[in-house]
């Protein structure tokens, strides 16, 4: 395990401990709308993560949901979501997590996802496989789309709501089940683990980088809605993550 992965795991674990401790006494602020909220736990988690990472890698770049971007002209960029699934966190649901991803030359290189309420920490590093609590994980080998569980997250549909609705209608006729967890990192972790078979989601880079690294190392596939490689410089990303086997079948249902 590289130093970068060890430090990222340390940061994710310490942040997870803090957000669990703070959960019973939250102060919630609304950001852009009622579905976009911020708590002191988000800020505390981000501070812990950045402090730990920067103490080891001060010359790397950083992109975090609350802090924004710090560009030090490095080939390495840490992409951080201090709490993904804040609405679930506030509501008392277990579907939230800490996401720490690393881009190397603008491509996902490693990722750590900590789901503290579920006692689950996932990690991966390029060429070294994906793990859950130290045990190697792989994506599902399911081939029949009719038996698939496809997580469908549509929190950021916005003006594209009609298009998103059309995708959902096409999906429900073809797949077994379309749950949503309102948390990118849970969705991506479950695809990597083989519990679910695909995830369709539109969100931000910090929601996806760690999960993309973990799914890829678990044998899965991640593209945009057109089947192309993700452009990680975009502010909003359309993402399809799958076990790879079902990828093309699902793409035909969601291509714009």
Descriptive account of the structure:
The protein is built from 7 helices and 14 strands. With 256 residues, the protein is an alpha+beta fold. The protein folds into 2 domains: 3-137, Fructose-1,6-Bisphosphatase, subunit A, domain 1 (Fructose-1,6-Bisphosphatase, Chain A, domain 1, 2-Layer Sandwich), CATH 3.30.540; 145-254, 3-Layer(aba) Sandwich (D-Maltodextrin-Binding Protein, domain 2). The strands form 3 sheets. The protein has an 8-stranded mixed sheet with strand order 4-3-5-6-7-8-9-10, sandwiched between helices. Strands 11-12-14-13 form a 4-stranded mixed sheet, with helices on both faces. The longest helix has 20 residues, at 3-22. The chain is globular and about 50 Å long.
Summarize the structure.
Mg(2+) binds at residues 65, 81, 83-84, 207. With 256 residues, this protein is an alpha+beta fold.
User: Can you tell me the CATH topology of the largest domain?
Assistant: Fructose-1,6-Bisphosphatase, Chain A, domain 1
Strand order of the largest sheet: 4-3-5-6-7-8-9-10
CATH class membership of the largest domain: Alpha Beta
CATH superfamily of the largest domain: Fructose-1,6-Bisphosphatase, subunit A, domain 1
Low-pLDDT ranges: none
What structural category do the secondary elements indicate?
Answer: alpha+beta
Biggest sheet architecture: 8 strands, mixed
Protein name: Inositol-1-monophosphatase
Catalytic activity: a myo-inositol phosphate + H2O = myo-inositol + phosphate
Family: Belongs to the inositol monophosphatase superfamily.
Enzyme class: hydrolase
